[in-house]
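[Q] Does anyone have a clean structure-token version of this?
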Amino acid sequence: MIRKIGYAIFLASTALFAYGVWVYETDFWEDHQILFPVANLLLLFMTFILFWAGAKKGRRDLLVVASVNSLFWFLCAIPLIQHTAWVGSSREQLTIRVLDAKTGKPIPSASVRIESKFGKYGEGETDKGGKARIEALLPASGTTSLFKWRGRIRLLGLTVKAESDSYEPGFFYFDENNSWWPLYGPPIPEIEIRLQKK
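[A] Here you go.
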């Protein structure tokens, strides 16, 4: 029974280790800043259980499994201990308000698109209040360690385009003055675009 429980814990630890490798190699840190440390704590807890069970019952096989488990934990803990730089992306919500340039009234059902020379990042349509809320996967980079997460969103080169019937297209350009935004700070400020009548 002890052996089955020990092996079950080891399989769970292997799954956590695979998750750690996946996050470290292929995914983006900001999406896992809570889950990754929690998974490491679970891995450490499972390692202690295996060592305790192996020592108490005098089971060498469990002690060997516990040693392998501790190696899993150590490899997963390295990214938390060291100062790691990353480049990836972050899913952010941008709010765009589209108004009539002359009257200042909101324009409903206007088409809004976030794009750059590399492609489209998101699109939406304004509501009755002239607002469009768009989820966009934006370029981001930063550093992470056990106690600190720092990062910023790259906005330079992005263009917000608004179109509506009987209006000329309107644009908002992110330039050098608003090229970056803190990743872990307040949301990106609302963008206002005023459209001229044709």
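[Q] Thanks! Anything notable?
[A] The chain has three helices and nine strands.
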